[in-house]
Amino acid sequence: MYMDSPGYPVTTRSQIIKIVVPLYRMNNKTDFSYDGVTAFMKVNTSDESLPMLGVYEVFSVASGDLSLPYKVK
User: Fold this and answer.
1) CA nearest to 35, candidates 2, 66, 4
2) Is residue 3 part of a domain?
3) Which of helix, strand or coil describes residue 24?
4) Closest to 73 in 3D by CA, of 35, 26, 32
5) Cα angle at 13 between 9 and 66, to 5 degrees?
6) Statement: residue 1 has pLDDT above 90
7) Are 52 and 45 within 8 A, CB to CB?
8) Is residue 59 included in any domain, yes or no?
9) What DSSP letter does each residue of 5-53 carry, written as one string?
10) Is residue 4 part of a domain?
11) What is the number of structural domains in the chain?
């Protein structure tokens, strides 16, 4: 999971989202598929019965069905 966070600059243009991740951070692998998801997430630090990072609502999935159709270029 890559989010807009320090060290991973995210840029958008039209319908393209670009995230620059150093190759060494991906163990030098470039053959994998992915999908894009926008979701409401919460960080939990007080209730041990809940996950630390939880997805509470999914707003959209780029492929429409989470089929991981996109490839690294």
Assistant:
1) 66
2) no
3) helix
4) 32
5) 80
6) no
7) yes
8) yes
9) BTTB-EEEETTEEEE---GGGGTT----EE--EEEEEEE-SS-TTS-SE
10) no
11) 1
Coil/strand/helix, residue 22: coil
User: What is the residue range of 47's domain?
Assistant: 10-71
Cα separation, 45 vs 43, whole angstroms: 7
Tracing tokens 């039209």 back to the chain, one arrives at 14
Q: Is the pLDDT of residue 2 over 70?
A: no
Which amino acid, residue 5?
S
**pTM of the entire predicted model:** 0.62
Tokens of 56: 């509470």
| pLDDT tens digits, 28-57 | 777 888 888 889 999 999 999 999 999 999
Classify residue 1: in a domain, yes or no. no
Is the pLDDT assigned to residue 7 strictly greater than 80?
no
